[in-house]
């Protein structure tokens, strides 16, 4: 299940690290033995992926594997509290979700999943390939009427969507092959224009200033048009590291630079999300000293 674990972050107080750099970090009380990943904001709430629990508090399984679902929680005094799984229409047959994103208006839910018996494409395709679906909320049913985004070719994997702040561009990862826009690594970051009514432009690769011959994952665009993402390219601290790149005036991104310690560690560090207005944010990490498979950390920028 490791390929499903890509997260996001939040806070606690005493357990803090400071080094001769520009960040102070702390772990959250929400962390436990479960993974918490693919975290995203929407207004005053936070959304993330973790194991679904049954009524007795044990991890629910489907076909012998832990079931991953979307949790919604509040942010109060710097902590994630009152978590609860969101309601997915049972008729959707969705049992495992690996990333979550709400549209800027909050009217649509974007998820990364694999195909199931209800929507599997015709012909040959890789059953392990991920794709992006979008659904709507219907009272009495929950989130339902999910549709595969039209640019998702079943021959390839797509995932980890995120919107530009104006909602006009959707960024995501994919391993598209063939043509001038093909991925150079195991997964690259792409973008498409959002044209409305489930109509999108053609995927465009962000190019070599962002992508490498390794894996790029979990893109996020801050309010000041800085792209943050994770990559396991060489010359990092270890595992996946978090990188950033500022969009310049012509709409292209500058060469990506890795963030310093203590944001990055010798283990996987993923899903960096920042509020550029106040210099705080969250990320996920498998670093030693944590409580679970993926823990959420809060950071303050001291720049």
* Uncertain residue ranges: 1-20
What sequence of helices (H) and strands (E) makes up the elements?
EEEEEEEEEEEEEEEEEEEEEEEE
- How many structural domains can be distinguished in the coordinates? 1
- Counted beta strands: 24
Q: Tell me the span between the first and last alpha carbons.
A: 37 Å
So how many helices?
Answer: 0
Q: For the record, what CATH class applies?
A: Mainly Beta
CATH architecture: 6 Propeller
Give the helix proportion (percent range).
under 10%
Could you give me the name of the CATH homologous superfamily?
TolB, C-terminal domain
What's the story with the biggest beta sheet? 5 strands, antiparallel
- The structural class is mainly beta
General form:
globular
DSSP strand content: 35-45%
Structure description:
The structure is a single chain. The protein has one domain: TolB, C-terminal domain (Neuraminidase, 6 Propeller). Helices cover 0% and strands 44% of the residues. It contains no helices and 24 strands. Strands 1-2-24-23-22 form a 5-stranded antiparallel β-sheet, with no helix packed on it. The model is unreliable at 1-20 (pLDDT under 50).
List the helices and strands and how they pair.
Elements: E1 16-18, E2 23-27, E3 37-42, E4 45-51, E5 61-62, E6 65-66, E7 68-76, E8 79-85, E9 99-102, E10 108-114, E11 130-138, E12 142-148, E13 158-163, E14 169-174, E15 188-196, E16 199-200, E17 204-205, E18 216-221, E19 226-231, E20 241-246, E21 257-258, E22 269-275, E23 280-285, E24 295-301
Antiparallel strand pairs: 1-2, 2-24, 3-4, 4-7, 5-6, 7-8, 9-10, 10-11, 11-12, 13-14, 14-15, 15-16, 15-17, 18-19, 19-20, 20-21, 22-23, 23-24
């Amino acid at each position: 299940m490791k390929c499903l674990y890509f997260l996001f972050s939040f806070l606690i107080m005493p357990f803090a690290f400071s080094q001769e750099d520009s960040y102070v970090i702390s772990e959250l009380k929400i962390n436990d033995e479960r993974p918490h990943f693919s975290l995203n904001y929407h207004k005053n709430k936070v959304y993330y992926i973790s194991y679904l629990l049954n009524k007795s508090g044990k991890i629910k399984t489907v076909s012998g594997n832990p079931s991953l679902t979307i949790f919604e929680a509040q942010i109060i005094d710097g902590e994630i509290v009152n978590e609860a799984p969101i309601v997915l229409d049972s008729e959707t047959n969705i049992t495992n979700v690996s990333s979550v994103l709400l549209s800027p208006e909050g009217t649509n839910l974007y998820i990364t999943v694999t195909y199931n018996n209800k929507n599997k494409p015709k012909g040959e395709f890789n059953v392990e390939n991920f794709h992006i679906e979008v659904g709507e909320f219907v009272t009495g049913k929950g989130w339902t009427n999910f549709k595969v985004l039209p640019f998702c070719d079943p021959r390839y994997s797509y995932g980890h969507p995120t919107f530009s702040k104006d909602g006009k561009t959707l960024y995501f990862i994919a391993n598209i092959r063939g043509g001038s826009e093909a991925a150079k690594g195991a997964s690259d970051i792409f973008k498409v224009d959002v044209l409305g009514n489930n109509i999108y432009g053609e995927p465009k690769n962000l190019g070599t200033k962002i992508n490498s011959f390794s894996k790029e994952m979990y893109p996020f665009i801050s309010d000041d048009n800085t792209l943050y993402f994770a990559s396991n390219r060489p010359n990092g601290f270890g595992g996946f590291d978090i990188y950033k790149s500022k969009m310049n005036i012509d709409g292209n991104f500058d060469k990506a630079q890795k963030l310093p310690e203590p944001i990055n560690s010798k283990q996987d560090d993923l899903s960096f999300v920042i509020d550029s207005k106040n210099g705080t944010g969250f990320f996920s990490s498998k670093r030693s000293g944590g409580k679970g498979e993926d823990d959420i950390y809060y950071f303050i920028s001291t720049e």
